[in-house]
From TrEMBL:
Residues 23-114 form the Type I restriction enzyme R protein N-terminal domain. Residues 220-398 form the AAA domain. This is Cobyrinic acid a,c-diamide synthase. InterPro entries: AAA_dom, DNA_Partitioning_ATPase, HSDR_N, P-loop_NTPase. PANTHER family: COBYRINIC ACID AC-DIAMIDE SYNTHASE, P-LOOP CONTAINING NUCLEOSIDE TRIPHOSPHATE HYDROLASE.
C-alpha cells in the first residue's frame, strides 16, 4: 500500500506509541498531526477546554465558520493500556453537553468515530491503526475542516430561517410589522448541506456498527433458579434492556409476589398500578376477560424501552384460587399466544410454586442464573429436574438455553474455577453434559455495587450513563457491566436461534 504525505506522517506517529505511552504522547504524536492533516490550523481547536464543568481534551471547530456553535468535533484521548469501549459514555456526555456533531475516541491503537443525532449518540465507525491509514482519505472527508465548514454553513442557514419565522410570528402577534425592519437580515452566502453520500463516504460493510434485525421467531424465556439471592431479577431487567439495545422488542413479566422486577423498573405496585385502576399479573391469571395488552405498562429511558406486566403482593395469597381454575397451568401460555414481542422474559419467585409451573408452561426456553458459590450451584440439579417434569406436560420442547453466571467475585479465580468444575460435574451427573451449556466467561456479570444499586434507582444499568449523581469512575464501571450484559444478550440470541 502506497502512503501519501498525510498517511505517512500518521504512520510515523503510530510507531512512536507503545503500551507504556501516556495520553500526552498520543496527543502530541497522533492527535495534533491528525488535526493538521484534516486541514485544521492552530486557531481551529482548543485543548483542555471546560464545557459545562467537564474538561474536554480537544474541542474542534473552524474558527472562520459562520456558526461558532456547536463544535464540529470533540476528541477524547485515553492511555494505550485503557480499553476505550469503557469510555464511550464519557465522550457521550461531552458530546451532549457541548452539542458536538462528531466525536473521536482513541487510545492510539483503536479509533472510534461517534455521531450525535439530537442527543442520541452512537459509534458509527471503528478503526485499528492500519485500517485508519487505509481509509484515511475517507476519514478526512468526514472529520476534515472542509466538511466542517459546510455543515456550519448549512446549520446557520437553517437557523436563520427559524429566526425569521419566529420574528415574523412575534411581529404578527403584537401587530407591529415594523419590527422586522429592526434587524439587518443580510443575505448570507449560498450554502449547501455537506454531501456525505455516494463515493465520498462508501464504507466497507464490516466497519459499520449496525443491527440487521430480521428475526422471524420469538422466545418466551423463564429466568429461573429456586435459590434466591443469585441476582435473578437484576439479570432479567438488564438482559431485557440489553436485548432492546440490540433492537429487539422486549416484554418483562413479573410473576413474583415480591414484585422486585416491578419496583426495579421504578414502578410502585400500589401507587402506580392499583391506585390508578390499572391491571397487573393477578388480573391476567385470574380474569379470563383480561388480555395481555390490558396489563402492559411501557417504561422508557431515552431510546431504551421496555414493556412490563407488573406484579402485586396479593399474588402471594392467590395460590388456592389458582389451583381451582381449570387448566390454570396453560392460562399464561394462552394469553401469550399472539404476542408481538421478540423476547418475553418471565421472572418467577425463587421457589417452586404454582406460578412457577404456569411460567414454565408458557415458556419456550429456560435460562438458569447462578452464582459461583456452593448453594446456588447445588440447586442446579433440582432446577434441571423440575424443568424436565414440566417439559413432559408440554406439547413443545422446553430446552434449558444455558446457565448464566452472575455476581461472581473477579478476585477469586481459583475458587471460580472449582465452582465451574462443580457445575460440569452436576451436568454430567444428570446426563445433560451435552445439552446444557455454561455460558462463556465473557458473558459473566461480576459482583458490582453499581449493578445491585440500579433496581433501587428504578432503571436498568444502561441508564447509568444519564445519572448525573454518578462519578465518571462509577459510570465507567457501569459501562463495563453493560458490555457484559450486551455480550450475554448476543449469546442468548445466538443460542435461541432468533432469526434462523
Amino acid at each position: 500500500m502506497s502512503l501519501t504525505h498525510s498517511t505517512l506522517s500518521l504512520a510515523q506517529g503510530f510507531t512512536s506509541i507503545t503500551p507504556t505511552s501516556n495520553e500526552s504522547d498520543i496527543e502530541q504524536n497522533i492527535i495534533i498531526p491528525l488535526l493538521k492533516n484534516l486541514g485544521y490550523n492552530d486557531k481551529d481547536w482548543q485543548e483542555q477546554i471546560v464545557i459545562h464543568k467537564v474538561r474536554v481534551d480537544f474541542c474542534v471547530h473552524p474558527h472562520d465558520a459562520v456558526a461558532p456553535h456547536p463544535p464540529y468535533l470533540i476528541i477524547e484521548v485515553k492511555a494505550p493500556q485503557k480499553k476505550i469501549v469503557y469510555s464511550s459514555w464519557q465522550i457521550h456526555d461531552y458530546m451532549r453537553k457541548s452539542g458536538a456533531i462528531l466525536g473521536l475516541l482513541t487510545n492510539g491503537y483503536e479509533f472510534r468515530i461517534l455521531y450525535n443525532y439530537s442527543g442520541d449518540i452512537h459509534t458509527i465507525l471503528t478503526y485499528s491503526q492500519s485500517q485508519l491509514i487505509q481509509d484515511f482519505q475517507l476519514v478526512r472527508k468526514l472529520l476534515g475542516k472542509k466538511i466542517g465548514l459546510k455543515f456550519s454553513q448549512a446549520l446557520h442557514k437553517s437557523q436563520q430561517k427559524v429566526h425569521t419565522r419566529f420574528l415574523r410570528a412575534i411581529a404578527n402577534s403584537f401587530q407591529n410589522p415594523t419590527m422586522l425592519g429592526l434587524f439587518n437580515r443580510r443575505k448570507k452566502p449560498n450554502s449547501e448541506p455537506p454531501k456525505l453520500s455516494g463515493e465520498n463516504l462508501e464504507q466497507p460493510e464490516s466497519k459499520f456498527i449496525t443491527n440487521s434485525n430480521q428475526e422471524n421467531k420469538s422466545m418466551i424465556i423463564t429466568v429461573f433458579n429456586n435459590k434466591g439471592g443469585v441476582g435473578k431479577t437484576t439479570m432479567t431487567i438488564n438482559l431485557g434492556a440489553a436485548l432492546n439495545h440490540l433492537g429487539y422488542n422486549v416484554l418483562l413479566i413479573d410473576i413474583d409476589a415480591q414484585a422486585n422486577l416491578t419496583t426495579g423498573l421504578g414502578i410502585d405496585p400500589l401507587e402506580d398500578i392499583e391506585n390508578q385502576g390499572k391491571k397487573d399479573i393477578t388480573h391476567l391469571l385470574i380474569d379470563p376477560r383480561v388480555k395481555l395488552e390490558d396489563t402492559v405498562i411501557e417504561k422508557q429511558w431515552g431510546n431504551l424501552k421496555l414493556h412490563l406486566v407488573p406484579s402485586h403482593i396479593r399474588l402471594s395469597n392467590m395460590e388456592p384460587d389458582l389451583v381451582r381454575i381449570v387448566d390454570i397451568d396453560r392460562v399464561l401460555a394462552k394469553k401469550l399466544k399472539n404476542h408481538h414481542y421478540d423476547f418475553v422474559l418471565i421472572d418467577p419467585p425463587p421457589s417452586f410454586s404454582k406460578v412457577n409451573g404456569i411460567s414454565l408452561m408458557a415458556s419456550s426456553g429456560i435460562l438458569i442464573p447462578t452464582q459461583l458459590s456452593p448453594y446456588p450451584v447445588r440447586a442446579l440439579e433440582y432446577v434441571i429436574e423440575q424443568a424436565r417434569k414440566i417439559g413432559e406436560y408440554k406439547e413443545e420442547a422446553l430446552p434449558i438455553l444455558g446457565i448464566v453466571v452472575s455476581m461472581y467475585d473477579q478476585r477469586s479465580s481459583s475458587f471460580n474455577l472449582s465452582m465451574r468444575s462443580r457445575i460440569f460435574e452436576i451436568l454430567d451427573k444428570v446426563g445433560e453434559q451435552d445439552t446444557i451449556d455454561l455460558f462463556p466467561e465473557h458473558t459473566w456479570v461480576p459482583r458490582l455495587n453499581i449493578v445491585s444499586n440500579c433496581p433501587d434507582k428504578g432503571y436498568p444499568i444502561f441508564s447509568s450513563e444519564f445519572d448525573d449523581q454518578l462519578t465518571f469512575q462509577e459510570k465507567e464501571t457501569a459501562q463495563k457491566a453493560s458490555e457484559r450484559y450486551l455480550d450475554l444478550a448476543q449469546h442468548l440470541v445466538k443460542v435461541s436461534k432468533i432469526g434462523n
